[in-house]
Fold this sequence. Notes:
- The complex is a heterodimer.
- Chain A is mainly β.
- Chain A contains no helices and eleven strands.
- In chain B, strand 7 and strand 8 form a beta hairpin.
- Chain B is mostly beta strands.
- In chain B, strands 2, 4, 5, 9, 10 and 11 form a six-stranded mixed β-sheet that branches.
- The chains are: A mainly beta, B mainly beta.
Amino acid sequence: GAVVSQHPSRVICKSGTSVKIECRSLDFQATTMFWYRQFPKKSLMLMATSNEGSKATYEQGVEKDKFLINHASLTLSTLTVTSAHPEDSSFYICSARDVLAEYEQYFGPGTRLTVT
Amino acid sequence: AQSVTQLGSHVSVSEGALVLLRCNYSSSVPPYLFWYVQYPNQGLQLLLKYTSAATLVKGINGFEAEFKKSETSFHLTKPSAHMSDAAEYFCAVSGAGQGGKLIFGQGTELSVKP
C-alpha cells in the first residue's frame, strides 16, 4: 500500500530557531502534497497545498514567510518553520496524493514540534 | 464551498454494541466523502470513501457508511464495537475541481467500555 513517511517524528527546538520537517511518499509519486496542523483534541487544519515544481498555495491566515514549503521532487516536500515561537508548537501532518488516484490522500504519521 | 459537521465530539459505547458516528456535509459540487481514524500521536488512516459509485460503502475493520444525498449525510456504522475501535474519527469532504483538498469535520472521539 501507499506509504508516506515524515521525519522527524518528534522535535524540540528553542525559540527563534528554524526547524525543517520532511514528508516523503515512499512507493508512489505525488504531484501534490498537503500540510496540516493539528492542535490537541482538535481537527486538522489545512495549512497549504504543495505542488511539485511550483510555489505552494497557502490557506487564508497562514503566514507563507513563517511556514516555508518546498516540493522539489515527486516524492519529497518539506515544511520549514522559521523563527519558531512556543505558539508554533503543534502536531504537523502531511499527506500525499498519488498521481494515479485522484480522490485519495495518504497521510504521514505526523511530527510533534515543541518550541521551548 | 464545502463543510462537514460531525454531531457529537464524544461517543461512548459498550463493547459489542452498535457504533454510529454522524457526519453531515455541505458541498456545491458532487462530493467525495471520507472517514479517517486517528490513534493517539499518529497520522490518519483511511477507513472508507465514497466517490459517486455505490452509496453503501464498506471499509476496513468492519466499518461501513451510507451516502444519503437527500439528507446530506454520510454516517459511519459498525455492528459490534471492539475495544480496539477506541480512537478519534474524522469525516472529510472533497470534490471534483477542488484540487484534492480535504475539508475535515471536528472529529468524534469514540470510547469503548468493556
